Amino acid sequence: MQYFSKSPEEWRKYDEERKKEKERKEQPKKRIIRWTFYIVIFLSILTLVFIFMGRGSSRFDLPYSMIIKGFHINLESKEEYYYPDNLDIKVTIQNTNNKDSHITIKNFSFLIVNQESSEVVYSYVFPQPVETDISQYRTILVFDLLREKEISNLDKGTYEARVAFILNDQNVNLVKTFKYDKGLIIDVFAKEMFYLTTEFPSFNILAVNRTNEPFNKEFFGTLIIKQREKVIHSQRFSFGTLNLNPLSSISLDFEINKKFDPGNYFVLFDFNFLEQTYVTTLNIVDQIDQNYNDISLLVYVVSVASRGDQLDFEGLIRNSNREVRAFEISQVLFKLFYEGQIIYNYENNNLSRVYISELGTAKVFDLSKVKTITLDRSGKHEIQFSVNIGNKTFSKKHRFEVY
């Protein structure tokens, strides 16, 4: 038999050679895939090591917080201060070890630097070594700026608080960035959490002169209301010349001359003379809810406190429904008892509105807004909290111990 190309034996050899050649060419690719797989496994293991060994690592991802051999060092400061606020900055160390530990601090320095100009606004240096014992899980205060110097009236801008020292022969360097604001501070918000389609929405504009000079300028701007990026309404407004002494404030009411369909809106107040825009929300509903199903009361409060702590308490309404809810609250009651005797009573019978998004919550009471309560007595405490919505009362009792 005559073959026009190759015999079967020749074709078999030819196929085998092609297969070997293909394997030789793909070998580097297989090595790359294999090594990539190994690298991925290695990085995953390394990540787990860093997670589980975090207590012994030298630093968190945050520039103002780090851990050295079980000691958590933190540089604490607010994100923003307003004139004439004093800077409140602290350095703390927490012993996260499960045993008492001894620490030595050397060459402590603290700086406040203007980020734009690099000017050192304040410096504190304490080179002498300081030694102390810290019991397990305890936090100690290393530095408190307010105890050293009251710093306020800074130029408007961005600043850095920098701290450096040696902790048990380990270097510590922390940085916290904050802003110091000076000028006319404005806050805008709807006077009610929701409005009906038959009502003209009303807003409150709060202006505070946070400077050491009088403010005498025309107070005007433009109001823009949007829904899904579409402009629904706009109007200009002016309150004439505003005369504000240093650190004084004024509250201005502003009613929109339009009624709206049910829905959620963004409201932009563009104050042209300040070249600033403030954004808030506007909620519109057909009617006030009379159905209280899927509504419950939540409270946020400690279960255990130390003597001298400030009592923090918040009351919220939770909506377990997948539809928004709009209610009227007729009464809010808060009572604090110590060893069975009432020591503080708050009652608000003013009619107010609460708007709760689907499966959401809305805050209806915040103790810090009405009273500062210091827990100065050890013993058993009890809180009784209730909210009247329409003809239904929601209530909670909470007991906690102060040591």
3D architecture notes:
It is a single chain. This protein is mainly beta and 403 residues long. The chain has four domains: 1-54; 63-179, Intracellular proteinase inhibitor BsuPI (Immunoglobulin-like, Sandwich); 183-283, Immunoglobulin-like; 293-400, Immunoglobulins (Immunoglobulin-like), CATH 2.60.40.10. The chain is 12% helix and 54% strand. It is built from two helices and 27 strands. The strands form six sheets. Strands 3, 5, 6, 7, 9 and 10 form a six-stranded mixed beta sheet that branches. The N and C termini lie far apart (106 Å).
Gist?
Helix content is 12%, strand content 54%. The protein is mainly beta and 403 residues long. Residues 7-25 have a biased composition (Basic and acidic residues).
CATH superfamily of the largest domain: Intracellular proteinase inhibitor BsuPI
Largest sheet: 6 strands, mixed
| Helix vs. strand class | mainly beta
Task: Write the H/E string, N to C.
Answer: HEEEEEEEEHEEEEEEEEEEEEEEEEEEE
CATH architecture of the largest domain: Sandwich
Strand content: over 45%
As for the CATH topology of the largest domain, it is: Immunoglobulin-like
Span from first to last CA?
Answer: 106 Å
Poorly predicted regions are 1-8, 28-60
Oligomer: single chain
- DSSP strand tally: 27
| Range of helix content | 10-25%
Total tally of structural domains: 4
What is the CATH class designation of the largest domain? Mainly Beta
Strand-helix topology:
Layout (H helix, E strand, L loop, with lengths): L7 H45 L12 E4 L2 E6 L3 E3 L7 E6 L5 E14 L5 E7 L3 E5 L4 E6 H4 L8 E11 L2 E12 L1 E8 L4 E2 L5 E9 L4 E13 L2 E15 L4 E7 L7 E9 L4 E10 L9 E7 L2 E2 L7 E7 L5 E14 L2 E8 L3 E5 L4 E6 L12 E11 L2 E11 L1
